[in-house]
Amino acid sequence: MRRKIVAGNWKMNNTLEEGIELAGQINDLVENTEINDVDVVIGTPFIHLTEVNKVVGEKIGVAAQNCADEKSGAYTGEISASMIKSTGSKYVILGHSERRTYYGETNEILVKKVNLTLENGLAPIFCIGEVLEEREAEKHFEVVKSQIAEGLFHLSAEEFGKVVLAYEPVWAIGTGVTASSDQAQEMHAFIRKTLVEQYGEEVANNTSILYGGSCKPSNAKELFENADVDGGLIGGASLKAEDFMGIITAF
Ligand SMILES: O=C[C@H](O)COP(=O)(O)O
């Protein structure tokens, strides 16, 4: 089901206390503001999941930022999809460029994580996006298409219907350089066309495709006005309740 979604990704920020406080502030704002049919998601570090789920009401979904690529067992330091599910969380952010780059997450690993996420009734927020060199070499469409195909096209149409996509041009993440509204729309339309080819119009038109990369209250409205931009995956600006709220209300 295509929904407008604004998802925060706290990355590796906030102690447990700080996270509970921030989640409470966001929840208060969400509860007391008229929100135009937008699903709000908070992506926290693992240690916050249980407590943040207790703090937020029904209008906010909680996301983990990763999960293990195995079900359970002797994998020291890992957190499984079923463990995430048991905290009351609803989403798992997968394939973020920081995980692909710093932790060697390959499409093969991501396929396992996507499958485990779905098997446990969680929705993957699956990240895709090119680096600057790939855009400059005009390979960005090819790169994004192959990330989607290799990470997700093993899914049936029904399974794919539970996936949220997040297009995050790597050159725009945390840099203050946002993709222009035209660049975002061009890529999102391309992604939707790619989904039409694989799954048909209905699935493609029902898929939420979020934009991520230096999205702020000041530029969110322009980005979200595009026909194929269904919301945002927000890093830095999700760490301040007012800024995050400014993005949510940009719709
Ligand atoms: O997951 C979020 C993205 O990496 C965007 O981060 P940013 O808003 O700080 O650029």
TrEMBL record:
SUPFAM superfamilies: Triosephosphate isomerase (TIM). The active site is at 96 (electrophile), 168 (proton acceptor). One of its GO terms (cellular component) is cytosol. The keyword Isomerase applies. GO terms for biological process: gluconeogenesis; glyceraldehyde-3-phosphate biosynthetic process; glycerol catabolic process; glycolytic process. It is an enzyme of class 5 (isomerase). Gene3D superfamilies: Aldolase class I (3.20.20.70). InterPro entries: Aldolase_TIM, TIM_sf, TrioseP_Isoase_bac/euk, Triosephosphate_isomerase, Triosephosphate_isomerase_AS. One of its GO terms (molecular function) is triose-phosphate isomerase activity. Pathway: Carbohydrate degradation; glycolysis; D-glyceraldehyde 3-phosphate from glycerone phosphate: step 1/1; Carbohydrate biosynthesis; gluconeogenesis. Its EC number is 5.3.1.1. It comes from the Bacteria. It catalyses: D-glyceraldehyde 3-phosphate = dihydroxyacetone phosphate. Its main location: cytoplasm. Pfam families: TIM (PF00121). Substrate binds at residues 9-11, 174, 214, 235-236. The keyword Isomerase applies. Keywords: Cytoplasm, Gluconeogenesis, Glycolysis, Isomerase. Homodimer. Involved in the gluconeogenesis. Catalyzes stereospecifically the conversion of dihydroxyacetone phosphate (DHAP) to D-glyceraldehyde-3-phosphate (G3P). This is Triosephosphate isomerase. It comes from Marinifilum flexuosum.
